[in-house]
Every structure is written in structure tokens, then in C-alpha cells.
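Lab notes, practical 5.
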Amino acid sequence: MTAAARGAGRRDVAFVLVGLAVFAATAAGLAAMGHPLAAPSGVRLWGGGEDSKHIVDWYTPSHVVHGLLFYLALWVVARRQPLSLRALIALAVEGAWEIIENTPWVISRYRDVTVSVAYAGDTIINSMFDIVAMLVGFFLAARLPVWATIVVGIGLELLAAWAVRDNLTLNVIMLIYPFDGVLAWQAGG
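Output from the prediction step:
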């Protein structure tokens, strides 16, 4: 093994350790804000109607799309950096978003301007798997051709819109500038 390969291996191990620290810090931050580890009904793979409480739910595709978008953004601004460093940056951003998304202000904003009037924030388990979903999207984008990445992203957005009348695009729109027509459609009108 060459010295360069050993150095790259040590660097990647360091990135994994820092990544695990991001997971731990995110979980600790959510716990400090009072978010439960799991739903009162226990840990289940599928959340169904109990969104943001279990391992996956109808918002999991949005986190995969986060990963696709983070890959694109980091390819644009840091494509010469190692993939592992770019993944670590995406991981840190997603971890920060999980903390921000679960602050009282953002939870209140979701309740006030979106169809999610009963949203109470994520469980720690759901947030950890949201981060994993982002990493899945990030590494998919790293491996797939551009056209396939675009198809996956649009497909996931359409699937969530069809299933629950919500997705990443609608979520961002409604948080920034709510439209009554979109809200009515999301409510089933």
C-alpha cells in the first residue's frame, strides 16, 4: 500500500468518525430540546399516518432529494474535494437542518402555514434516519448518471405529492410564501 493510499484511508476513517459525531451531536441537540427518542407506539419501520415519528415515512423521499441537491451544490462549489469530505459537509448541513426543523419556531411555522397543523416535530430516531436518507440520495447522485439522478429526484417528488399532497418543493414554497390554493389542494380541496 502506498503512502498516499494509507493517508487517504486515514482521512476517510477520520471523516467517518466526524460523521458519527455529527449524528451524535444532532441526537443530543434534539434530546436537549425535549424531542423523544421514539414514538409512544414504539419503533416501527413505516410511519404511515404517524409522520416524523418512525424510521421512514412519506417525508423520507424529501430527505433523499436533499442528498441529490447537496451533491449537486457541492459538485458545483467543491468538485475537486474528495467525495468523503463533500459527504461530510452534506451530513453536517442535514444534521443542522434536523435541529433547526425541530425548533419551536419552525414547528409553529409548519402548523401556521402548511397543512401540517398537528406537526409536533420529529423523534430522534426519525431524524437520524432522515439523515441516512439524505446520505442515500447523496451517494446515489455520486453514482448515477445525471439524467437518472434528475429522474429519481422528480420521481420522488411526484410520489410524495401523489401520496400525501406534500413534498420538498411544496414544503419550501409553503414555508417561505404560502399560497391559499396550494393549502386548499393539500387539505384535499
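Observations recorded by the TA: The mean pLDDT is 91. Helices lie at 3-32, 60-78, 83-101, 104-113, 124-143, 146-164, 168-176, 180-186.
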